[in-house]
Each structure stands twice: as C-alpha cells, then as structure tokens.
Amino acid sequence: MKPLPEKFIRALKAPVFLLCLGPAFVLTWKGFHDGLGANPIDVITRTTGRWTLTFLLITISITPVRKLSGLTWLIRFRRMLGLFAFFYGSLHLMTYVWLDKFFDVHAMLHDIAKRRFITAGMTAWFLMLPLAITSTKGWIRRMGGKRWQKLHRLIYFSAAAGVVHFIWLVKADLRRPLTYGAVLATLLSYRLITWLVSRIRARRAMATQQTARA
Amino acid sequence: MTIKKPSDIPSSEITPKSTYLTRRKFIAGAAAAGAALAGGFYLRDHLDTATTVHAEGQKLSGIVKSKLSTSETPTSFKDITNYNNYYEFSTDKYEPNGLSKNFRTRPWTVAIDGMVKKPKKLDIDAIMKLAPLEERIYRHRCVEGWSMVIPWVGFPLSALIKAADPLPSAKFVAFQTVLAPDQMPNQKRSGVLDWPYVEGLRMDEAMHPLAIMAVGLYDEVLPNVDGAPLRLVVPWKYGFKGIKAIVKISFTDSMPPTTWNKMAPDEYGFYSNVNPQKDHPRWSQASERRIGEFRKRPTLMFNGYADQVASLYSGMDLQKNY
C-alpha cells in the first residue's frame, strides 16, 4: 500500500486529537447540563475508567492492525493514543483521589493495601507513568530504541492490571470486563504468535546457514 | 396488549417505479408515505396509552403518616426511579427504568406456603387492603456505598404474616421474586444471578414494626422499576435484602437461602445489616454518598435505626454474622 503523504498525516492529527478528547468533552458538557444522572461521580469514575482501558487497547492494537492491513502510517498516531490512555487514566485516578477520598491520604493508603481492586488499579496507573514520561523523542534518543521499546512493553502489564481491576470491582455479571479481557488476550496472542514465528524463522535461517557451511 | 405495528409500507408505494422520474408525483408520494408513517406511529403510541392499564403513577388514597418516618429530605422521584439495582432487568443502574416499563403487575397473586396452618394464594389487591397504607420515609443504604431517603407507601410486614397464619414452629420467612424471563431480560441469561431471586428474614426481624411491604412511592402506586407490585423494605439492612416483585412467601424452621449469599458467601451474609465497622471484603462500608450530595457522609450502625433494632442482635457477633 502506498504510504500516506506527510502533509495528510499532519492534517489528520488535529481531528484525531479532538476525537480523542470527545469523551472528556461529552462528560463535561453533561456535567453542566444535569446529564450525569443521580450519581454523577459514579458516572465520571466509570466513564473515565472505561476510556482508559479502551485507549490502552487501541494503542496496543496499532502494531497488529498496521502489520495486517499495511497501513504503516498508523504508527504516527500511537504516541498520541497512548498519551490519551494516560490522560483518561489520570482523570480516573483524580476522581478517586478527589471526589471519592477527598485527598484523605490515610484512607487511600488503607484502600491500596486492603482492597485488591484498588491495588490493581493503582498498579495499572503507575505502570503507565514511565511510559508517559519517556514518550518524547528526546527520551527515545537518550534511552536508545531497543531499551525504549523494552520499557514500553509495560503497556501490556498496565492493560492486564486494568482488566483485573475491572473484574475485581464488579459485583456480578462479568460481561463487560471480560470483553476487555478477551480483546487484550487476542492482542497479546497475536504478539506471541508473531514472536514465535520470527524465532522459528531465525532458527531455520541459522540452520540453513550452518548446513551451507558444512 | 394486542397492538399491531403499523403495516410496512411497500417501498414501491414510497417511490413507485412508474412515477420514479416524475418529480411532482414522487414528492406527492413521499409526502403521503411520510404522513402514513407518522399517522401509524401516532396511532400506535395513542393506542398504547389507551389500552394498557398503567397501574404505575396512580394515586393511592387513604395514606396515613407514620411516626417511624425520618424527617430527612426525601431523594427526588426521578433519582429514586432512575438509579437502582434490579438485576432481573439490567446490571446497569440506569437501565431498569426503561426496561421495566411494560412489566405486567396485574393479575398478580402471592402464594403463601410452608409452615402455615393453610397454604393459600392472595391477590395483590386483597393484600393492599390487609392494613391501612402508611407513608414510611426511610433511609435506604445500598451495599455499594450510596444511599437515598425514600418515601415508601406500605404496611407492616407483620400484618401480612398474621394473615398468613404461620405455625409456631416457623422461625424464618422466605421470599421469592417472580420468574418471568419473557419480561425480565436478564432471567434468560446465565452468569448473572441464580433466578428467581430469593431473600429471607428471621421471624423476629420480619415481625419488627420497621419491616414493611411496600406497594407505593411518593403517594403513588409503586413504579415497576422499584419492585412493583409488592416489595420488601427493611431499612436497617442493605438494599438488596429488599426483594422486589414478590410472588411467594414461605415459612420455614431453617435459615433460607438468599441470592447474594449464594453468589458470594464471603461478601454477603444472611443478615446483611448496615454496619460501618464491617467492611465488604472489597470496599469500605464506613461512609456513603447520599444521592444528591457531593461529600460523603459517615454510615450509621443499622443505618441509623440502632435504637429500634439493635436488641434483635444482642449477644451476636456481628463481625461473624454479617
């Protein structure tokens, strides 16, 4: 497939950015128009949480989709999408810190230690933090591509912790969290399969080299 | 309800092939089709309200006030009816209102069986006349950490128990929700809860004056979403004890199974009394968010009804008997 012209990619960035802000915009708009129902804080918590997981999964799916479809330019949007996952994750965390616990550090520490779904959620956010910090070009250069890539595999662990966080907080009916889990599992198995295939290929290549030498 | 959908208008009528190219005729045809459709929809909506008996929304008469009511400001009707758990319809708290709109609450009978002198079936309209209807404004605390103040209309459960005439050997009362998978979408699915929903009380809890059978809300017939036509309200217990759409009441001498306890015994006990000192294993029960309020407020022992009900549990370890 033909690569997209640079101009087009640049032009596309602004609308994609605005689209990613959509959920936050809708939430704010509803908040000012009595549209968040009886328990607005609950709605804000759930919505930001769901979008965090959604953006994590979209970010993770960029590579498989790019490889399967040949739309190589998708990679140019990955950092933005990943940062939006962090953005929604931070809003989600702020909802908890501010609107649920009202900055009561003691209560929060107690929660993190005692409530396993909080532990999992906190883990998911803290795993995103270094990825957000090192998302700049400067950091890629400083770390070197290989090491940077290795570090950014943390996104899989963050998403997994996020799914576990979701599963553990549900009272009954696991459909929603398990849907996220299934998507994540599919994406992970894709990466695993491609990794295995590449290893087998490399080994074969090595074997043929050796036989050629012999 | 036997209302047919307006018959589909054949596409040929909307854009008849023969007149396809004749602009004027096409516009006229489209206008006619549009009018027919609009008319159909109007008729359907109109017939719907004309032929369905909506018990919901009807004013209840002869309601007396009760000294057991709280003086706190009741939560709005809109919030009470648009934010609650009714897993038979949906596990989402915002959805049951719409999904329960056409739930049929007439005819409705409640079977009384088990350890009673004589098993019987009571009609809901007869049940509603068992005792004078009272307004009971109660605090309502959900196990999830939110709360409301709800102006129920109902009568003491003890009145119904007296009418049921249980044997002296009966020690517990068991309640059962209707099984109507054709009307309750989640009852068709597995993996939500065990259907039908069942609940239970110890006899002395059931006979307590605070325990009521609710048939109304805000002086009107109980909305479907809140458990019409008949639900249990036990204000010192977590909300899920208040079983909805009751069709069976049985008397037994052993502790009856309860739905959430079967689902997760370490999280939901038989008693499920509101207790800020006993955390749910996954979250704290020390505070709650009153719907409509921004800040959380501390949760009170027995949901603030300790003076009236604490004696029911004297000598019991409430950390173990949660």
Q: What's the total count of β strands of chain A?
A: 0
Radius of gyration of chain B: 24 Å
Q: Given the helix and strand composition of chain B, which structural class is it?
A: alpha+beta
Low-confidence stretches of chain A: none
So what's the CATH class of chain B?
A: Alpha Beta
Percent helix of chain A? over 70%
Distance between the termini of chain B: 45 Å
Number of domains of chain A: 1
**Global structural class of chain A:** mainly alpha
Number of H/I helices of chain A: 9
Radius of gyration of chain A: 20 Å
Average the pLDDT over all residues of chain B and give the rounded result: 88
What proportion of the residues of chain B is helical, as a percent range? 10-25%
Assembly state: heterodimer
How much is the average pLDDT of chain A?
A: 92
| Secondary-structure element order of chain B, N to C | HHHHEEHEEHEEHEEEEHEEH
CATH topology of chain B: Sulfite Oxidase, Chain A, domain 2
In CATH, the homologous superfamily of chain B goes by the name: Oxidoreductase, molybdopterin-binding domain
Strand content of chain A: under 5%
Describe this structure in words.
The complex is a heterodimer of chains A (about 210) and B (about 325). Chain A has one domain (about 5-215). Chain A has about 210 residues and is an all-alpha fold. Chain A has helices at about 5-30, 40-70, 80-100, 105-115, 115-135, 135-145, 145-150, 155-170, 175-214. The longest helix of chain A is centred in the last third of the chain and has 39 residues, at about 175-215. Chain B is of the alpha+beta class. Chain B has a single domain (about 45-75, about 100-315), classed as Oxidoreductase, molybdopterin-binding domain (Sulfite Oxidase, Chain A, domain 2, Alpha-Beta Complex), CATH 3.90.420.10. The two termini of chain B are about 45 Å apart. Classes of the chains: A mainly alpha (about 210), B alpha+beta (about 325). The interface of A and B includes residues 39 and 42 of A.
